[in-house]
Specification:
Chain A is an alpha/beta fold. Helix content of chain A is 44%, strand content 17%. The longest helix of chain A is centred in the N-terminal third of the chain and has 17 residues. Chains A, B: Pathway: Pyrimidine metabolism; UMP biosynthesis via salvage pathway; uracil from cytosine: step 1/1.
Chain lengths: 158, 158
Amino acid sequence: MNDQEGLAIAIEEAKTSYKEGGVPIGAALVSRDGKLLGRGHNMRVQSGSAIHHGETSALYNSGRLPASAYKGATMFTTLSPCDMCTGACILYGIGRVVIGENKTFLGGEAYLKQRGVEVAVLENKECQDLMELFIKEKPEIWNEDIGEEERVYSKEAK
Amino acid sequence: MNDQEGLAIAIEEAKTSYKEGGVPIGAALVSRDGKLLGRGHNMRVQSGSAIHHGETSALYNSGRLPASAYKGATMFTTLSPCDMCTGACILYGIGRVVIGENKTFLGGEAYLKQRGVEVAVLENKECQDLMELFIKEKPEIWNEDIGEEERVYSKEAK
């Protein structure tokens, strides 16, 4: 599976979450040999979870796996990973993180690189448009999701 | 609530997990004004989850909270937090992490400090004994939980 195909699965998840009224961030975990291990999306609204972000949901839906299953795997995510999801990728030794966009939120990309994880940002407009729409519509949920109190998100404020 | 009282809740959670056949790591999240926001334990064995560690379970069980609820809060955990749980504490702006022990596993303590989180290690023997027992009994589950393949955990190997 190439990067665009992997990201397409993450985008499908993000759109599903948006349709459910949730935070539109999705992710897909793909093994070294191209097998989809798991996919998922943010579940803050849907199940009241503070720990099911896109990436952690993909890990959750991948189930219990031995360490070897994660080695050389790629995490595709529609948005730059927050500190929790950054740490989750590092914990499991995921080799590469492919990011849809990092304009609406810049997460732990530098720390991922520092810890030896390869990072690619695809600058995908669909991912960015979806986040901008959501942040405009539900800024309070977005702030809650990233542990921020007063940050204002808008195209103008960026 | 003082540190020993907070850690006592985390230890109760760890023991519950051990009795359930799971990874004996527990945590409790306590607000700035001493209110228990949530408590939980590792759920890898119990619910097949790769993301419900002690600390993330405490966050999960705390439910959806605004950023203000986490500010100045303390995360009590029986074991030094892994990279994922380290990142989760940073994401939510938790001010302090109180750790039962870091002899059987040393997690992201340095990074927590680097990101401005206060860290205290209580060197609690009960926490250490419980982890040593578990690692001896079920090393393969422990390795899976920390994304390691071949690491050998024993009193002798440390």
